From TrEMBL:
Keyword Metal-binding: no
Pfam families: PEX11 (PF05648)
Residue ranges that the Swiss-Prot or TrEMBL entry lists as coiled coil: 31-58
Species this protein is from: Lepisosteus oculatus
Listed GO biological process terms: peroxisome fission
Compartments, as annotated in UniProt: Peroxisome membrane
Keyword terms of this UniProt record: Coiled coil, Membrane, Peroxisome, Peroxisome biogenesis
Keyword match DNA damage: no
Name of the protein this chain belongs to: Peroxisomal biogenesis factor 11 alpha
GO cellular component: peroxisomal membrane
Main location: membrane
Length: 246
């Protein structure tokens, strides 16, 4: 109970709960879209989804400054790849929050001259760039871990035993691929925060890609991916040890 209270007292924690509720509503609304008997429930879910989205915009009002500050902190990292990826990701996220704040102001009746569609697409572009940079960071860290694990004698012996005990056609044809996948699984299993962050970023990618029509799916897929990434985000807030660093 104490963990839950501490979680809900954080603005980030409240945002994750609102986000999970928002995308859960979107998913449920999609699943009952063709059921006439559930029309009233669909309407209530739609209203709840909109309210959750509006509430999240309030929580994000100060995030632009936080993102810029985070970008400044990453400049102190010694690794040039991590420094570049994370600094650019935080700056892209700051620009996304600026667009989001302007759209929120327009929804309240201010800045009526603002082109909602244009700024919405611009926000999605910045969000997508931020996710791609974070995913690049994840892949870079995975490659580094795999390189270290590949030099580990115990891992080398495990791969050799695995390849020797599987004499089927697939393993004989592509032994390097089989060894690569085994090494990848071993690396991710030994670093749960990195696995969690990678899956979360991949799930989030579908949201801006759908908005920008880069990869058009449907509200059900967007709702499921948003809900999955929100749950993973909640886990990382509840358990700081599951938060990827840096």
């Amino acid at each position: 109970m104490e963990h839950f209270i501490n979680f809900t007292n954080q603005s980030q924690g409240r945002d994750r709960i609102f986000r999970a509720t928002q995308y859960a509503c979107a998913l449920l609304k999609y699943l009952i879209r063709n059921k006439a008997a559930r029309a009233e429930l669909a309407r209530k879910l739609d209203n709840l989804e909109k309210n959750m989205s509006a509430g999240r915009k309030l929580f994000r009002l100060g995030n632009t400054v936080s993102s810029v500050h985070a970008a400044r902190r990453t400049l102190q990292l010694s690794d040039p790849v991590l420094r570049a990826c994370l600094a650019a990701a935080h700056l892209s996220r700051a620009l996304y929050f600026i667009c989001d704040n302007l759209l929120w102001a327009r929804s309240l009746g201010f800045l009526q001259h603002l082109d909602k569609e244009r700024w919405g697409l611009l926000a999605s572009r910045f969000y997508l760039v931020s996710l791609l940079l974070n995913l690049a960071r994840d892949l870079y860290q995975i490659s580094r871990i795999m390189g270290r694990r590949a030099r580990d004698k115990q891992v080398q012996e495990k791969i050799s035993r695995h390849l020797g005990s599987n004499g089927d056609v697939a393993c004989m044809v592509v032994p390097k691929l089989d060894a690569f996948l085994l090494l990848l699984c071993e690396s991710l299993r030994s670093h749960p925060p990195l696995l969690l962050d990678t899956v979360k970023n991949v799930c989030d990618l579908f949201i801006p890609m759908d908005s920008l029509r880069i990869y058009k799916t449907n509200p059900g897929v967007v709702g499921f991916c948003g809900l999955a990434s929100s749950v993973l985000g909640i886990l990382s807030v509840l358990q700081p040890s599951l938060k990827v660093k840096p």
